[in-house]
Each structure stands twice: as C-alpha cells, then as structure tokens.
Amino acid sequence: MSRIACLFPGQGAQAVGMGRTLVERSPLARQIFERANAVLGFDLAELCFQGPADRLDATDVSQPALYVASLAALEVLRADAPGLLEQCPFTAGLSLGEYTALSFAGALEFEDGLRVVRERGLAMQAAAEAVAGGMVSILGWELERVEALCAEVRQSGEVLGVANLLCPGNIVISGSKDACQRAAEAATNAGAMKAIPLKVAGAFHTELMRPAVDRLAAALATVPLRTPRIPVVSNVDAQPHSDPEEIRRLLVSQVVSVVRWEDSVRWMIASGGDSFYEIGPGRVLAGLLKRIDRKLKCENTAT
∠ at Cα 88 (297, 13), nearest 5°? Predict the structure, then answer.
C-alpha cells in the first residue's frame, strides 16, 4: 500500500481567487471559511476570492488566508476520496504550512490554529515594517557557495544569511534590504542560474524577525497543543516531535531559523513515503519535490 505524505504550502502560494471554486461546490469548504470569518472578525473569504492582491499578499492576511484555504481543500479531499488520508503516516508544511500540518495531525484545533497564525502574521508584519528587509532565491548553486556569497557582500551591521533550503539548487537567502540587492547582483555576475528577489514584506527566518518571537510565544501559550496523531516534521530540524511543549518551542524558533524543507522531505522519503499530496493553493511544493526526487508522485488539490 502506498504511504502518502501530505504537504501544506507556505507564504507566497497565495493568489486572488483561491478557495472560491471549493466554496462554490462544497458546503464543507464554505463552513471552513465561515468559521474563519467568525474568528477573525473580517471577511477573509472576500479577500481570498476578490482581493485586492496587495492586501492578500500582506503577511498579516496571507498567513491566515493560506491556513484556511489549505484546510478547506483538505476537507474537500477528505470528502472526495474517502479513506485516502488514512494512508497518510506523516505530514509537513513549509514555514506557515507547518501550522496547517499540525491542525491536520490533530495537534491544533482549527480555531486555535487560526488565532495563532493571525497573530504570527501580525507580529512578522510589524517586524518587517520596523527594518527594511528582503529575500532572494539563488538558483543553481550549492549551499557552500551561497554561504560564501552572503559573507562576501554582507557589510558591518547588516543581516544576511541562508533562510530556506528548499531543494537541490534552490536556496533562499534573507536579510537587510541593501544586502539582498547586492547579493542578487553579485550572484548574477558570478554565474548563478538565477537570483530572484521574492515579493515578501521582510527578512523572514533571520534575526530581523526576532521582535516577533515574544509575541508569537505569547499567542502559542494561550492555546492547547496535543500530541499529533501522526508525525509532523519540523522545519527547524527536519525531525518529527511528539511532545506538545517541544512543538511549541520549535514553532517559536522557526521564525528566526533556517527552513530545512529538503531535509524534511528526505526524512519522509526515508521513512517510507512514496507518494505525496500538496494540499492548498499553488504547485510550489510539487515542483520542489521533483527536484529532490523525480521518481516521486505528487498530486495537487485544486483551490
């Protein structure tokens, strides 16, 4: 029997219109968005379905929007393919998607997770507005060369370092805005396949997000966390954890830590994962999976 791993996308996968098709055809998806609107106190569904794009892309909105849209897609998949998700022995989510994975695994109630994700987005948005930062995807280079690039262009007082280890040849750096701009230019001049500045509000997964840590920790302290019914692979160390307090600590640490996505996927493969579902908006994770192991199958849910 196939061992299916469920993957949940992170910030950047959002797009105006996400979730609309699900809600139009599924009362279950509609209920998810209605519950979300009640928790948040504003019409998240309207922002997801109609935009405007600049508001949906804002960190304080995109994070709860992706959490809700992904869980709506999960409910539709559960209804469309009875028994499929029972074949899932482990799960993971990219950065913000880790909260969705924890909700799927039964560690977080939907409403509790949404409240924390909303606070996480607000805290990270505030940190991003305090200091100008950015992120750049470097394609075609190995980790050592990317680290050397950061050391070469980083000036005194600046933050610049590896933020996301996504797949072979796709590493994201993050830090001070000027340092990111110099890094993109230097990488291009030095022969990197591509150096793509990302459309994000700030320097996620670096010390520039440190102001968000206490606020996120306080939010997590207000909600119960249970032992997941299946392993959820942490972004921080690419390992599963069952102790709720350890999960809570890792979620706080994740904001300023490198996202070890490639290692997380490789853990699931080594543990028997031979088929994957990307549940939520976009196809980013399917693309990364193909770069990690072309033989693996990945289905996408429509949102």
Answer: 60
What single-letter amino acid sits at 184?
A: A
In the prediction, which pLDDT does 87 show? 87
Global pTM reads: 0.96
Query: What number is the average pLDDT over the span 171-199?
Result: 97
Which positions are catalytic? 95, 205
What is the spatial distance between Cα 192 and Cα 271, in angstroms, rounded to a whole number? 33
**How confident is the model over 263-284, as pLDDT tens digits?**
999 999 999 998 999 999 999 9
Residue 123 burial (10 A CB sphere; 0-12, 13-18, 19+)? buried
Beta pairing class for 133-139 and 170-176 = antiparallel
Place of tokens 């075609």: 140
Token pair 């206490």 in the structure block, residue: 214
Q: How far are the Cα atoms of 42, 100, 148, 273 from residue 26, in angstroms, in the given order?
A: 21, 20, 50, 29
> CA 136 to CA 162: how far, in whole Å?
10
Query: Residue 208, Cα to own-chain centre: how many angstroms?
Result: 18
Whether cis (ω within 30° of 0) applies to the bond prior to 52 is yes
Confidence class for position 142, pLDDT limits 50, 70, 90:
very high
Confirm if 239 and 267 have CB atoms less than 8 A apart. yes
Tokens of 300: 């996408």
Radius of gyration of the chain (CA): 18
Instruction: Check residue 240 and report its DSSP letter.
Output: B
First to last CA, the chain: 27
Predicted local distance difference test score (pLDDT) of residue 270: 95
Helices and strands (H and E) in the chain: how many: 13, 9
